[in-house]
Amino acid sequence: MSFEIFISQFFGGLSVAMLLFLVASGLTLIFGVAKVFNFAHGSFYMIGAYFSYQAIALFDNFWIGAVVAALGAGLVGMLLEICFIRRIVGREEEGAFQILLTYAFILILDDAVKFIWGPAYKTISKPESLAGSMEFGTVTIPTYNMFIILLGLVIVVSAWYVLSRTKTGKIIQAASTDTQMVGMLGVNVSLVMSLVFGVATAMGGLAGAMAAPLRTIAPGTGVEVIIDSLIVVVIGGLGNFWGALFAALLIGEVNAFGILWMPQWASLLSFAVMIVVLIFKPKGLFSREKGRKKI
To answer: Model-level pTM?
Structure first.
């Protein structure tokens, strides 16, 4: 393999990893704080892409579309948490209810986008300012891919700062450990959970908007995304934010180089990595066998 091809594949895998991280981090944030396994999280990626498509059609501005995608997905996520998910938390057989309810969300949201936008594929063009490419010697990298990588890094740093350096982050950390104690200290736990759902689903919606110029927009895309996200969450460790980042980088690069080296097995490589990890670390690479769960 030439150096140029190696660098090109590396940055391609890195851009895919950052998009995957945006989705998976929201999924792991919900599980880490609310202990809710949101099987429908990939659907917020899908509706984010559709919200972006509609906003761009109305305002002819990619960045407005991205903002609308994040806000729209976040508001839908908060609405579903307040109206439905909150009602099953704490019940007997809660895990089964969570899976059934969130799976129902997948079916409902898929039919909703078909009803509103139709079953035909939609496409979004890259913003003109990011439509070109960057030259690094003999290596050419699309400018849009570099933007996604930088956006992912900004979100990682922002998340680290909020979770570890702000009062809000400390409340979230505490709520992920003992919601009853946090409530006894005067914190509105229900509001915290709703905000966590909102932020997490907004990240999924933003990922959908950012991925739309690279992929087609169609009903059912959330199912494919949630499978990849679940692999990332399982490898990193359920509820571990930084584990999700590492696992997303790992899966992104494995897929990027796997397509190049073993194209006939590329679709199985993510599962193979997950199986190997679970053999040696059944709870994920960054899980903690004892002690508090850390997001």
So the answer is: 0.91
